[in-house]
Design a protein that fits this description.
The complex is a heterodimer of chains A (260) and B (304). Chain A is an alpha/beta fold and 260 residues long. Helix content of chain A is 19%, strand content 34%. Chain A has three domains: 94 residues, Elongation Factor Tu (Ef-tu), domain 3; 118 residues, Rossmann fold, CATH 3.40.50.80; 42 residues, Dihydroorotate dehydrogenase, electron transfer subunit (Dihydroorotate dehydrogenase B (pyrk subunit), domain 3, Ribbon), CATH 2.10.240. Chain A has five helices and 16 strands. The longest helix of chain A has 14 residues. With 304 residues, chain B is α/β, with parallel strands linked by helices. Chain B has a single domain, classed as TIM Barrel (Alpha-Beta Barrel). In chain B, helix 3 runs parallel beside helix 5, helix 6 packs across helix 7 and helix 8 packs across helix 10. The chains are: A alpha/beta (260), B alpha/beta (304).
Chain lengths: 260, 304
């Protein structure tokens, strides 16, 4: 982990929902693992004051670049939407505990909304390792989906779900995934990222499915490196219930250890 | 080169720059990231006798030019601190200032006794004012008689430099400052966070798990500078000033108001190298002003 200055190579409005930001920082590109995040200072002023955590959606050591995907929703991301090519962004990273694939095929990735970002990077790295990968990707409607074909290598089996049925299967992603299981899908392991209710629904489902399930959590963060204890999440492990830090022990946890 | 060495009563520091309690963990987190250049000492996260799990999340929220936190004094407890954190911290070679808190005066006394003569522990800071726990804190910071008695009791159990950290959540800070002085504190540190709240409008509920929290960051700085100014007038004790220090000029405001040392807290989260940057900035300021030592500036904003 280092503090670096990442150079903005390109900022692109992918669609109404997503921005893609390519940063040039060879150290980060070479070291960041799927599930890890960068803590960005989006402005040098006093408001907004704190850094913002962003999961890495892709890393390209060959070109020394990393990709972030984000929605322009809050004070911080609104500023980030206005960066220009050549700007330098103060950045801490890579931070956090990454996903740890155990090797059982196929790997099934479950992404809810913006939870797609870290799973894109995980999907790419699993494909590169020759793993069989399914991606279940859900959003409210077609317009809210990231055009995956622009960001992923071929070879991935993608299942879309939308709440309004405008793309893929209609319904909530955990239910769509349940139907795939009923139709004979047999995952070796699961990885998920998305809103907390979505992850909680998967964790409940997994009490029946009993697959190894790693989930990536979000929480409000200040330091990003484990000092302030701000991003606490209740974890039950070896019979002990205690707060863990999303920025340090997480953001990736085993779902059965999270006290939902 | 001008010296940043500073003497706070019995406590001598290489530089006047400290980490504010609770913002640097127990040190390990920043050790990999920053060079400790410019740091005069580490004020550690508040320690209690027994481990504390901390408050339910959300524990923090950003506010205009600041943040609210309600961590709830999460810490591993005395036994684990002595066995695990302290030996590791001793290796960094910096003076360690251990912040302690208790629900009763007896707990403060017990902690002070256990920390007495531990190598590397340069001073104790009494956290008299954590706004985020139900018992203890509020009482000690607002009842000056109790505050004075607590400080004097700890003095009996602890023979090193003793710092009383005061709460800003009072009508006038001069009274608790005088009470701490009367109780035998060597140093006053101020300010702790200001009580505050953010309401989640969508949920129609307070946003923090603890409902209220402590406000820190540049938003509180003018209040903190004023309180340091008032404490300087009220007592003769050396002051560690803090509250929203982001850069050299901010640190100088506190020093001119009467602080002999300053602590950096929230800024560590934003820019981990704030303290080394301020150390360099202070040296430069002294050189340009033709001053030998920072001591000459302490309280210089007051009428003579």
């Amino acid at each position: 982990m280092r503090q670096c200055r990442a150079r903005v190579l390109a900022l692109q409005e992918v669609n109404r929902e997503f921005y893609s930001l390519i940063l040039h920082e060879p150290y980060l590109a070479a070291t960041v693992q799927p599930g890890q995040f960068l803590h960005l200072r989006v402005d040098s002023g006093l408001s907004p004051l704190l850094r913002r955590p962003f999961s890495v959606a892709g890393a390209f050591p060959g070109t020394g670049t990393v990709r972030l995907l984000f929605r322009c929703v809050g004070e911080g991301t609104k500023l980030l939407c206005r960066v220009r090519e050549g700007d330098l962004l103060d950045c801490l990273g890579p931070l956090g505990t990454p996903f740890t694939p155990a090797g059982a095929d196929p790997a099934v990735l479950l992404a809810g909304g913006t939870g797609i970002a870290p799973l894109l990077y995980l999907a790419e790295s699993l494909l590169a390792a020759g793993r069989g990968v399914h991606l279940f990707y859900g959003a409210t409607g077609a317009a809210a989906l990231l055009p995956l074909e622009r960001f992923l290598s071929p070879g991935l089996l993608i299942h879309y779900a939308t709440e309004d049925g405008t793309a893929g299967e209609q319904g909530l992603l955990p239910d769509v995934f349940q139907r795939a299981l009923d139709n004979g899908l047999l995952p070796g392991e699961l990885f998920a990222c998305g809103p907390r209710p979505f992850l909680a629904a998967l964790a409940r489902g997994n009490q029946r499915w009993r697959f190894p399930l790693q989930i990536s959590l979000e929480e409000r963060m200040a330091c990003g490196i484990g000092a302030c204890q701000g991003c606490a999440v209740l974890i039950q492990k070896d019979g002990v219930t205690a707060y863990a830090r999303v920025c340090r022990e997480g953001p990736v946890f085993r779902s059965e250890e999270v006290v939902w | 080169m001008p010296s940043l060495k500073i003497k706070l009563g019995p406590l001598e520091l290489e530089t006047p720059l400290l980490t504010a309690s609770g913002t640097f963990g127990f040190g390990e987190e920043y050790a990999t990231l920053m060079y400790l250049e410019g740091l005069g000492g580490l004020v550690l996260k508040t320690l209690t006798i027994f481990p504390r799990p901390g408050n339910p999340p959300p524990r923090l929220v950003e506010t205009p030019a600041g943040m609210l936190n309600a961590i709830g004094l999460q810490n591993p407890g005395l036994e684990s601190f002595l066995a695990q954190e302290l030996p590791r911290l001793q290796e960094c070679g910096l003076p360690l200032i251990v912040s302690i808190a208790g629900d009763t005066p007896e707990e403060y006394v017990e902690l002070a006794g256990a920390l007495r003569r531990q190598p590397g522990v340069a001073a104790l800071e009494l956290n008299l004012s954590c706004p985020n726990v139900k018992k203890g804190g509020v009482l000690f910071s607002t009842d000056v008689a109790l505050l004075e008695k607590l400080v004097s009791q700890v003095r009996l159990a602890w023979d090193g430099p003793l710092i009383a950290k005061l709460s800003p959540n009072v009508t006038t800070v001069a009274e608790p400052a005088r009470a701490a002085a009367a109780g035998g504190a060597h140093i006053i540190s101020a300010i702790n966070t200001l009580r505050g709240m953010v309401i989640d409008v969508a949920a129609r509920r307070p946003l923090l798990g603890n409902r209220c929290g402590g406000l820190s960051g540049p938003a509180v700085r003018p209040i903190a500078v004023n309180m340091v100014y008032d404490i300087y007038e009220a007592t003769r004790l050396p002051i560690i000033g803090m509250g929203g220090i982001m850069n050299t000029d901010d640190a100088l405001q506190f020093i001119l108001a009467g602080a002999a040392a300053v602590a950096v807290g929230t800024a560590n989260f934003v820019e981990p190298h704030t303290i080394p940057q301020i150390a360099a900035g202070l040296r430069e300021y002294l050189e340009e002003a033709g001053l030998e030592s920072l001591q000459e500036l302490v309280g210089a904003a007051h009428d003579v």
